[in-house]
Amino acid sequence: EDATHLEDNECDIKLAGDSFIAFILRTWCLELKVLTYSTHLYYS
Questions:
Q1: Of the four listed, 8, 11, 23, 24, which is most buried by Cβ atoms within 10 Å?
Q2: Which helix (H) or strand (E) element contains residue 7?
Q3: Which residues, 6 or more positions from 12, have their beta carbon under 8 angstroms from its beta carbon?
Q4: Model pLDDT, residue 12
Q5: In angstroms, rounded to a whole number, what is the distance separating the alpha carbons of residues 31 and 43?
Q6: Whole-number Å distance between alpha carbons of 3 and 19
Q7: Ramachandran region of residue 17, left (φ > 0), alpha (ψ -120 to 50) or beta?
Q8: Cα dist. 43→15, 27, 30 in Å?
Q9: Are 4 and 11 in contact (CB under 8 A)?
Q10: In which domain of life is the source organism classified (predicted)?
């Protein structure tokens, strides 16, 4: 869980900002991480 939290924070830092584009990118980034995590669980 710690690694996941670090990645999420990293995501927020890289895409920091209040603009709509930043919000979309941040959301997409987190969705991608969830998808990757789910895939990892499925194949583990």
A1: 11
A2: helix 2-14
A3: 26
A4: 61
A5: 18
A6: 27
A7: left
A8: 30, 25, 20
A9: no
A10: Eukaryota
Per-residue confidence (pLDDT) for residue 15, from 0 to 100: 52
Report the distance separating Cα 29 and Cα 42, nearest Å: 20
Q: Which amino acid type is present at position 2?
A: D
Interval 2-44: pLDDT, tens: 555 555 556 665 555 678 888 888 888 889 888 988 888 888 7
Show the tokens assigned to 19.
Answer: 């603009």
What's the whole-model pTM score?
0.48
Q: In the structure encoding, which two tokens stand for residue 14, read together?
A: 């890289």
CA distances from 10 to 2, 42, 43, 44 (A): 12, 25, 25, 25
**CA-only gyration radius of the chain, Å:** 12
